[in-house]
Amino acid sequence: MKSRKDEGGSFFDRLTAHRMVASIKEPKQIELALSLRNQLGGVFLLTGHIGVIKGYVDLFKTHQVPVFLHLDKIGGLCTDTHGLDYLAKAIKPTGIITTKTNVVKIAKKVGLISIQRFFLVDTEGLDNIAKSLLQIEPDIVEIMPARIPEVIGEIKTFTSLPIISGGLMFERSHALACLDHGATAVSSSKSELWREIYSAQEKRFCSIG
């Protein structure tokens, strides 16, 4: 069984080659994400409930696709120590996504890779990110929305953590802008964008059908 460190390293390695993460908001997107698994960095599950989520996680992990659960979007999950311990031992996702610093702390204790999501609406948001990261660092930072890619460079001045950017991403140029400004990867629920393959060498996305 892979340790948290091993799973984290595997996911980070995968992101260097596959820089699009599929955000799944409805079950019907699961089949498409699986069909494109060889070009995705992983999946973020933003749908489901405690009764079905293990089946979803097992499906992706069987196909060796890193899978993260957005705790605010999965019905019936508790985010206290007991709830996250159960999540880590019984459901076994690659990790979790949360907006809450205290949940990041618990996730680290129970061996779950943590992605902390931040929403930026003004410059005060940058200060809040810096202060939050001083309290405890997640494994990955997710910045939303993706339509302010210049801010990624600002965040990189005070953290070396991998940065994923998503939200309000409607076309390939939006994804490219984030990557050009230093994002490790991008996330999107727009399935049309999942079909694009980013080439670090060619600095472009190529459609595969």
Report on this model:
It is a single chain. The chain is α/β, with parallel strands linked by helices. The chain has a single domain, classed as Aldolase class I (TIM Barrel, Alpha-Beta Barrel), CATH 3.20.20. Helices cover 41% and strands 22% of the residues. The protein has nine helices and ten strands. The strands form two sheets. It has an eight-stranded parallel beta barrel with strand order 1-2-3-4-5-6-7-8, surrounded by five helices. The radius of gyration is 16 Å and the shape is globular. Residues 200-209 have low confidence and may be disordered.
How many β-strands, per DSSP? 10
Radius of gyration: 16 Å
Topology pattern, helix = H, strand = E: HEHEHEHEHEHEHEHEHEE
- Note the main sheet: 8 strands, parallel, barrel
* Terminal-residue CA separation: 36 Å
Anisotropy-based shape: globular
Within the CATH hierarchy, at the fold level, what is the topology?
Answer: TIM Barrel
Proportion of residues in extended strands? 15-25%
Q: Strand order across the biggest sheet?
A: 1-2-3-4-5-6-7-8
Poorly predicted runs: 200-209
CATH architecture: Alpha-Beta Barrel
Arithmetic mean of pLDDT: 91
What's the CATH class, please?
Alpha Beta
Overall number of domains: 1
Quaternary organisation of the protein chains? single chain
Assign a percent range to the helix content: 40-55%
The helix/strand class is alpha/beta
Counted by DSSP, the helix tally is 9
Could you give me the name of the CATH homologous superfamily? Aldolase class I
